[in-house]
Amino acid sequence: MSAAEGPLVVGVDTSTQSTKALVVDAATGQVVASGQAPHTVSSGAGRESDPRQWWDALCEALRQCGDAAHEAAAVSIGGQQHGLVTLDERGEPVRPALLWNDVRSAPQAGRLVAELGGPKAWAERTGSVPGASFTVTKWAWLAENEPEAVRAARAVRLPHDYLTERLTGQGTTDRGDASGTGWWSSATEAYDEETLAHVGLDAALLPRVVRPGEVAGTVRDGHDLPFSRGTLVAPGTGDNAAAALGLGLRPGTPVLSLGTSGTVYAVSRHRPADPTGTVAGFADAHGDWLPLACTLNCTLAVDRVAALLGLDREAVDPGGSVTLLPYLDGERTPNLPHASGLLHGLHHDTTAGQLLQAAYDGAVHALLGALDLVLDEDADRSTPLLLIGGGARGRAWQETVRRLSGRPVQIPEARELVALGAAAQAAGLLTGEDPAAVARRWNTAAGPVLDAVERDGATLERITGVLSDAAPLLERGAGAEPRTRD
Ligand SMILES: Nc1ncnc2c1ncn2[C@@H]1O[C@H](COP(=O)(O)OP(=O)(O)O)[C@@H](O)[C@H]1O
Ligand SMILES: O=C(CO)[C@@H](O)[C@H](O)COP(=O)(O)O
């Protein structure tokens, strides 16, 4: 038995690159064991992963946690948003999942927006104007390109739903993750029949939306399951909503997350509806809202530039006037799905370190442009920005965010805030507490605050100018070559 003060809970983050599992003492928030196992994502024109490898990665991450995982009284899964998982009558994937950063459905996104009333109507009905990341556009892409897969689908799930269902045997989701599909109405908090009918998706194929605080199920019988039978399973949620729980986030505090995706968001009591599509009007996992902007190119893109230059990711140089828009995967914020990376302002005296710094600047510029849009009007602009995700460990990321935001930046010591948020949700099932209050009791957001420095407005303006001047190039893409990543 563990020496924990309270019951043990497990929180899982099944994100783009890996699955991370934490075993946490529900009384204190102490992480008593952890594990992590990688995923593979396809390269080439699309971004796909086999959902079965998420399950294998979950089992491996829990194996690394040892006996503590088997003592857990409750578990919850947080996961990458939007991915389209199609299952056959045996619950097996019909094909690999189409991930959030697969931009092939950009034409379908444009058509759906036009066909169902335009951007304003979409924002009012679902909270968001769907771009290529949204599940509904992926379903429309599948219907057009692989109709046999659509015909074979007996269940449609999101990544976190898929894992939760393998534990409980029941098809469930939550409002946070459902709000990233494009077929869940934030106005009615129910599946949107008109949208579903338009894309030919039967609501019977969708999971039940479990309420915040409700039990999604219990771990079922089965020899290969990584938990004891009867362990409580919480609703789980999308990874950004899970991190918001994990930080015990209150309205007014902005979060910048630096991972495969870059995201900027805040909790709000007001239902968002941005007709420009920059801000997605997600629900949170609590009963409030999570206005959020997301980029496709963050840590992987900057690491790729460092690798091309043969530099360590921290080997940045200040100065110079080179601009690098690191849109290696196309981009979502700004909405340029066909874009590729763009370099402007190269001189004889530009150093490799300045080029690398320009990649950081380009990635952070896109996120900071949306910062004010995700905050309520009455938010105090001097509140520290919480910096999380794998990139938050990097000094170059920290200093770039600090310089370009002009705000104090707080770096929580806790590393895995998505998994911690899931753990807080699981703990809430046991204690009856609000999961965000559990996370505040665990003091998960604690960490050093870097003081504000003067905002580098000149760099931001230069990048905005290049972006605007290069718009025709970025909109049409670089040619017929499919993008690849090694
Ligand atoms: N010490 C570090 N400094 C800068 N970046 C880091 C560091 N450690 C990890 N990363 C970056 O974090 C990324 C993974 O972040 P993570 O939030 O786990 O991603 P995801 O949730 O999308 O799978 C990697 O792409 C890597 O570039
Ligand atoms: O698409 C979004 C948010 O809308 C992404 O934030 C995904 O949820 C993927 O997250 P990471 O794997 O990068 O954490």
UniProtKB/TrEMBL annotation:
<feature type="binding site">
    <location>
        <begin position="81"/>
        <end position="82"/>
    </location>
    <ligand>
        <name>substrate</name>
    </ligand>
</feature>
<dbReference type="InterPro" id="IPR000577">
    <property type="entry name" value="Carb_kinase_FGGY"/>
</dbReference>
<comment type="function">
    <text>Catalyzes the phosphorylation of D-xylulose to D-xylulose 5-phosphate.</text>
</comment>
<keyword id="KW-0119">Carbohydrate metabolism</keyword>
<dbReference type="InterPro" id="IPR043129">
    <property type="entry name" value="ATPase_NBD"/>
</dbReference>
<dbReference type="GO" id="GO:0005998">
    <property type="term" value="P:xylulose catabolic process"/>
</dbReference>
<feature type="active site" description="Proton acceptor">
    <location>
        <position position="239"/>
    </location>
</feature>
<dbReference type="GO" id="GO:0042732">
    <property type="term" value="P:D-xylose metabolic process"/>
</dbReference>
<dbReference type="Pfam" id="PF02782">
    <property type="entry name" value="FGGY_C"/>
</dbReference>
<keyword id="KW-0547">Nucleotide-binding</keyword>
<feature type="domain" description="Carbohydrate kinase FGGY N-terminal">
    <location>
        <begin position="9"/>
        <end position="246"/>
    </location>
</feature>
<dbReference type="InterPro" id="IPR006000">
    <property type="entry name" value="Xylulokinase"/>
</dbReference>
<feature type="site" description="Important for activity">
    <location>
        <position position="13"/>
    </location>
</feature>
<keyword id="KW-0859">Xylose metabolism</keyword>
<comment type="similarity">
    <text>Belongs to the FGGY kinase family.</text>
</comment>
<dbReference type="InterPro" id="IPR050406">
    <property type="entry name" value="FGGY_Carb_Kinase"/>
</dbReference>
<dbReference type="Pfam" id="PF00370">
    <property type="entry name" value="FGGY_N"/>
</dbReference>
<dbReference type="InterPro" id="IPR018485">
    <property type="entry name" value="FGGY_C"/>
</dbReference>
<dbReference type="InterPro" id="IPR018484">
    <property type="entry name" value="FGGY_N"/>
</dbReference>
<protein>
    <recommendedName>
        <fullName>Xylulose kinase</fullName>
        <ecNumber>2.7.1.17</ecNumber>
    </recommendedName>
</protein>
<keyword id="KW-0808">Transferase</keyword>
<keyword id="KW-0418">Kinase</keyword>
<feature type="domain" description="Carbohydrate kinase FGGY C-terminal">
    <location>
        <begin position="312"/>
        <end position="427"/>
    </location>
</feature>
<dbReference type="GO" id="GO:0005524">
    <property type="term" value="F:ATP binding"/>
</dbReference>
<dbReference type="GO" id="GO:0004856">
    <property type="term" value="F:D-xylulokinase activity"/>
</dbReference>
<dbReference type="InterPro" id="IPR018483">
    <property type="entry name" value="Carb_kinase_FGGY_CS"/>
</dbReference>
<keyword id="KW-0067">ATP-binding</keyword>
